[in-house]
Design brief:
- By secondary structure, the protein is mostly helical.
- Helices cover about 60% and strands about 10% of the residues.
- It has seven helices and five strands, in the order βααααββααββα.
- Strands 1-3-2 form a three-stranded antiparallel beta sheet.
- The longest helix is centred in the last third of the chain and has 25 residues.
- The protein starts with a strand and ends in an 8-residue tail after the last helix.
């Protein structure tokens, strides 16, 4: 058990500094056991989040003191974090297809092949760059790929993206 004070939960930087070694150990353990390489920052943010929400009762309260319960953190990792984690690599077929699709859409926008506008909303005189439109397209549609992968991992379904 690790002692926590309320101000630790109110300050992400203080929390991550105080629990740096514990976060690093969790990162290493997850990499060894599940072959998922989270960053220290990601693990710190996730741990702070479950402490704030007390998901899986990771915070044990006794005599007006709070403690981080390691066994409950381990249970949260096993039962919630790992089963709900989707890992994609840049060479994944869906990611490559998505990039090609976004390149085509952006090119069509600049050549006038779609009704979409290349000017910034609210500022018709400002033209957006090819790169900014491509990034917006890619990031916006990347969520669809993650949802597809998550649904296919959790349920016996096959999802087709347009």
């Amino acid at each position: 058990m690790y002692k926590i004070i309320k101000s630790d939960l109110n300050s992400p930087s203080r929390f991550k500094e105080k629990f740096h070694q514990y976060i690093t150990d969790l990162k290493t353990e997850i990499l060894k056991r599940y072959n998922i390489n989270f960053t220290t920052e990601e693990i710190g943010d996730l741990l702070l989040s479950i402490c704030r929400s007390n998901d899986f009762n990771v915070i044990y309260k006794k005599d007006n003191k709070m403690f981080l319960e390691d066994s409950q953190v381990q249970e949260w990792i096993e039962k919630k974090l790992i089963p709900n984690t989707v890992v994609l690599s840049l060479d994944d077929e869906d990611i490559v297809r998505l990039l090609v699709f976004c390149l085509e859409m952006t090119y069509q926008m600049f050549s006038g092949g779609t009704r979409a506008t290349v000017t910034q909303k609210g500022f018709r005189q400002r033209r957006r760059t090819f790169e900014s439109i491509l990034v917006d397209q890619f990031v916006g549609k990347l969520g669809e790929v993650f949802v597809k992968k998550f649904l296919e991992k959790k349920y016996p379904v096959s999802v087709e993206l347009d």
